[in-house]
Sequence to fold (225 residues):
Amino acid sequence: MNNTFFVTGTDTGIGKTFVTCILMQFIKFHHKKVIGMKPIAAGVDIKNGETSNEDVNLLKYESTLQLELGEVNTYSFDEPMAPHIAAQKHNIEIDFKKIKMHAETLKNRADYLLIEGAGGYLVPLGESTSIADLVEELNIPIIIVIGVKLGCINHSLLTIEAILKRGQKIFGWVANILDNNMLEVNANISSLKQRIKQPLIGIIPYSPDQKPENLKNYITWPNDL
Fold:
């Protein structure tokens, strides 16, 4: 699937959806159609009388085309818990082929498709499967969101090592600054740049409300869109 990317992160809560929305805004600014997909989501909110996941809503909103929630999200669980535990609780097996078929359908409707994962790269999705296995099934390059905070270098290098050991391709990475009080932020990002061979796509400044508006200029795509 050309121009389709899987967005994973160094941890949960490090701004995958936030960064994905910024990437989508960047792509739209360059007059390309883009769709955001979050195949697996856990935790729902009630808004306008409807229950839905906040991350799914954001990706739906940023998508160029008008989509139904069910098109953006294949598996949704009410409880904010690890997806494999939620799936087991409801006797549901997460079907990778179903997600892939869904993704292929969406890709045919846009120039770009960004598929956001759940949690980090090795989050379990079943008794013996994980996000890493889903990426293997989709066979698409990965964009890594690195939450820049204390411990980010170790988390980042471990994530990259795990991806490369599986022979999967890293398209690039985004540094999302999470801690406004972190000492030597620039030095930490420089250390990451020295150790990560793949392109740095963007450095997103500290944003306490995690709103993606007006941040697309912080993205540098490695090649022509």
